[in-house]
């Protein structure tokens, strides 16, 4: 491996330079000093635990930090691009790393943003700001049919599977969650010993492949699900309908990452590409989906259940709401994933052109639930490029009760966004099943970084709420956030969007929602219908 090769090479060069010094005179003392120094540096790099890249790439890894020091702009190209090619801005990247390290996050000279740019958003501070609360509030997850409710943090670890991530990355995320008292979503890759070892609270996610709760032919296994859902660490159960990175298609784990351990966790063949089906087999209609929510809760002995989706058609969302009303059954939570979200590799055109962005999707789901009188029974989580306290505040204003973060949490564990996830060659041991590379990720060090990042981000969100005159999330309103819609004009979110009154869809459907409400069918997920100017077959 490279680290062994580098240390060995430095040792051999040091020995060779010493021999040259002995046999050919003092002219070789410079070489002895240089190579001995590099040998010491290599040994320090492979034994330190702070920087994963230096553990895997001793000596050579320092070139990365040298590039950052000389020209920070080179980070944009060399190391700090997101997996889906849409990077965080530099301020956000720096903020994540600094919070994870527990270092200063203040800067001089004010904003670097163009506040006159159309689309610029800002929060409204109060002339009478408050002090933030001593303890962060939590969100009670559990509707009337739930007997084991869970109090969720304002920021949690979003869905990332063992398989996509290394065992050490999962251990670090879960231990950070345990230390910080927030939840860790397992992703759809199954419930494994690495999720359970450190005792963090878990949201067990089930996808269309039913990994960890599936029969040999890929069907849902109720008994296996019930047995695992009973584990005390499992606090909530989530059914993944779609994800922001690639809505409309199933997840893919390349064959190179399907090790014997992964195959056993997912109950799939070893060394064969693992593909989740595009659609579920446990339901085909909104009504069947909602009935399955009831089945999941019964199998989980009353623990909170919900589903995650990247919003597509408003008609489908309304059809699900109608099914809830007809059946008298509701999920305890819904996680809205934005199309800008996603940590794993996905088809480029899906990344850029498929699915609803989080802002629109979140407000749609919130208002659909309010308009049907169901909002008080259901909590909403938001996921999709959530990384800062500002993101938490904005998403709560737009309708969320809590948030989940994926790529920011990965960065807290040491991810440098090398975009090598799908190759099994992650240089820092985060997104690989190669044990030699995964060894670089020190669980103790990175779990502390995860805990520090989450704590600092939630604290900043609460401080911002207090600066806005709000005692907590429940006092945030759409009036408190404004968006520039022209060079000379801004509007609040209260003006930009129609916010439903409780039961409004049932009493007097607004004209802008009427056609979709009429088309929504609790017994059918249907594509948008309309004449396209072509002859129908």
Structure, described:
It is a single chain. Helices cover 40% and strands 11% of the residues. With 537 residues, it is α/β, with parallel strands linked by helices. It has 2 domains: 78 residues, no CATH class; 349 residues, Aldolase class I (TIM Barrel), CATH 3.20.20.70. The strands form 4 sheets. Strands 4-13-12-11-10-7-6-5 form an 8-stranded parallel β-sheet. A 3-stranded antiparallel β-sheet has the order 1-14-15. About 3% of the residues have low confidence.
Structure summarized in a few sentences:
The chain is α/β, with parallel strands linked by helices and 537 residues long.
**Tally of distinct domains:** 2
What would CATH call the class of the largest domain? Alpha Beta
Query: Which structural class fits the helix and strand makeup?
Result: alpha/beta
Give me the CATH architecture of the largest domain, please: Alpha-Beta Barrel
The coarse silhouette is: globular
């Amino acid at each position: 491996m490279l680290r062994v090769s580098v240390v060995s090479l430095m040792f051999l060069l040091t020995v060779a330079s010493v021999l040259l010094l002995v046999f050919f005179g003092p002219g070789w003392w410079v070489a002895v000093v240089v190579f001995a120094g590099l040998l010491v540096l290599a040994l320090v790099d492979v034994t330190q635990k702070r920087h994963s890249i230096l553990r895997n790439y001793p000596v050579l890894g320092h070139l990365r930090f040298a590039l950052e020091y000389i020209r920070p702009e080179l980070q944009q190209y060399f190391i700090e691009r997101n997996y889906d090619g849409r990077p965080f801005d530099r301020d956000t990247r720096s903020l994540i790393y600094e919070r994870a390290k527990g270092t200063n996050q203040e800067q001089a000279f004010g904003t670097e943003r163009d506040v006159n740019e159309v689309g610029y958003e800002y929060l409204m501070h109060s002339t009478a700001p408050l002090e933030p609360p001593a303890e962060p509030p939590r969100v009670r997850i559990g509707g009337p049919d739930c007997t084991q409710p869970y109090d969720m943090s304002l920021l949690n670890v979003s869905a990332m599977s063992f398989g996509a991530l290394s065992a050490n990355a999962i251990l670090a995320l879960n231990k950070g969650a345990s230390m910080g008292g927030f939840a860790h979503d397992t992703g759809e890759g199954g419930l494994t010993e690495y999720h359970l070892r450190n005792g963090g609270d878990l949201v067990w996610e089930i996808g269309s492949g039913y990994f960890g709760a599936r029969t040999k032919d890929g069907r849902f296994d109720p008994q296996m699900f019930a047995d695992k859902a009973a584990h005390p660490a499992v606090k909530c159960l989530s059914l993944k309908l779609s994800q922001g990175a690639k809505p409309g298609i199933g997840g893919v784990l390349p064959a190179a990452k399907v090790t014997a351990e992964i195959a056993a966790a997912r109950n799939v063949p070893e060394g064969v590409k693992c593909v989740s089906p595009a659609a579920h087999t446990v339901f085909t209609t909104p009504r069947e989906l909602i009935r399955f929510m009831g089945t999941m809760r019964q199998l989980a002995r009353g623990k909170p259940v919900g589903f995650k989706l990247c919003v597509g058609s408003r008609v489908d969302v309304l059809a699900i709401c109608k099914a809830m009303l007809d059946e008298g059954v509701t999920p305890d939570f819904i996680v809205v994933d934005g199309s800008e979200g996603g940590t794993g590799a996905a088809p480029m055109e899906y990344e850029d052109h498929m699915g609803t962005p989080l802002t629109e999707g979140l407000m749609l789901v919130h208002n659909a639930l309010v308009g049907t009188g169901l909002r008080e029974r259901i909590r909403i989580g938001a996921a999709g490029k959530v990384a800062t306290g500002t993101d938490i505040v904005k998403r709560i204003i737009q309708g969320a009760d809590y948030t989940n973060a994926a790529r920011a949490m990965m960065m807290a564990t040491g991810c440098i966004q090398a975009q090598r996830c799908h190759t099994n060659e992650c240089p820092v041991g985060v997104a690989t099943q190669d044990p030699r590379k995964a060894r670089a990720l020190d669980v103790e060090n990175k779990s502390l970084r995860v805990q520090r990042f989450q704590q600092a981000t939630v604290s900043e969100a609460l401080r911002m709420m207090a600066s806005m005159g709000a005692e907590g999330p429940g006092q945030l309103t759409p009036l408190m956030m404004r968006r520039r819609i022209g060079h000379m004009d801004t509007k609040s979110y209260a003006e930009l969007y129609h916010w439903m009154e409780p039961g409004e869809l049932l009493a007097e459907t607004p004209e802008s929602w009427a056609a979709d409400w009429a088309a929504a069918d609790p017994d059918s997920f249907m594509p948008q219908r309309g004449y396209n100017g072509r002859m129908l077959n």
